[in-house]
Amino acid sequence: MNTSVDTSFDRFAELDALKGIQPFAEKIREAGLYPLKSNAAIKTLQVNIGKACNLMCRHCHVEAGAHRTESMSLDTMSRCLQVLADNGIPTLDITGGAPELNPNLPWLINEARSLGHQVLIRTNLAVLEMPEYAYLPELYADRGVEINASLPCYSKNNTDRQRGPGVFSASIRMLSRLNELGYAQAGGSLKLNLVYNPGGAYLPPAQHDVEAEYRRVLLGQFGIRFNKLFTITNSPVGRFLAFLRDSGNLHCYMEQLASAFNPATVDRVMCRDMLSVGWDGRLYDCDFNQMLGLQCLPAHIDRFSRVALQEREIILGNHCYACAAGTGSSCGGAVV
């Protein structure tokens, strides 16, 4: 077992050992929802194609950055495409790091679209202004790729504080370019969604309220249009866990999540109809479990078994409170 996985398990144990926080598994058992199992059909294969990134966001659960070298190989991508095709999984969800930094990304998109799969990519926008990746927006538009673009706030100061100087302005320029390419236009098929993460140790506001404010500011000040906005609760994993610990907010944040537990969210959390694939082909219930080293069985894409993975029991921990607090949280935003 390598060092990174050992460290991940230490973090998993740290959250579950916090005093006064009822274990998540016990909480859903009391609600009559245990064990939590995946749905019969896997609808989305979410593939993390690398941990390299041009940014160092403080809320990043992947702990991505320019110093990371993990990158999915062409062979592993090919295996993912085979699993999609052989098992009727409709959607390929591509994430990172910044997925654009994997040189095989264009090939993966073209192959998946040629096979008839919906392709969704998660981007930080600013990477698309780098000269070597400036051609990708046209590729996305040409291949009908749905874009989920992270924009932590509609204000320059808040975004740059969380992501680094100049990121907000770069993001606005790229959103304008995507609009020019046909994204989020009335009657058009190209989808551009924005993603909001809180800037600190608190739950996101109501999704519809945040979306309305983003629309007001982005359209009014910059002429930018988008389809939907997703609010995502920061999971106490990775760099955000370190931030919580270093700022003395870890226990308070976990209490906040646990006290906001909403049993109505549990049936709709993303792990029920998604499977997460790590850059090295290892399988997980979700992206957060991936960063904690909590593998499914079978444990690798090379040993994929639809029978074994359908209706599997989800591996739970106290980090799961982030997806089940308030209106819930998933890669597609609030769930109730």
Description:
- It is globular and about 50 Å long.
- It starts with a helix and ends in a 27-residue tail after the last helix.
- β1, α3 (74-87) and β2 form a beta-alpha-beta unit.
- It contains 12 helices and 9 strands.
- It has a 9-stranded mixed sheet with strand order 6-5-4-3-2-1-7-8-9.
- The relative contact order is 0.17.
- By secondary structure, it is α/β, with parallel strands linked by helices.
- Helices cover 35% and strands 13% of the residues.
- It has one domain (39-253, 267-315): Aldolase class I (TIM Barrel, Alpha-Beta Barrel), CATH 3.20.20.
- The model is unreliable at 1-6 (pLDDT under 50).
Quickly list its features:
single chain; 336 residues; alpha/beta; TIM Barrel; 9-stranded mixed β-sheet; 12 helices; disordered N terminus
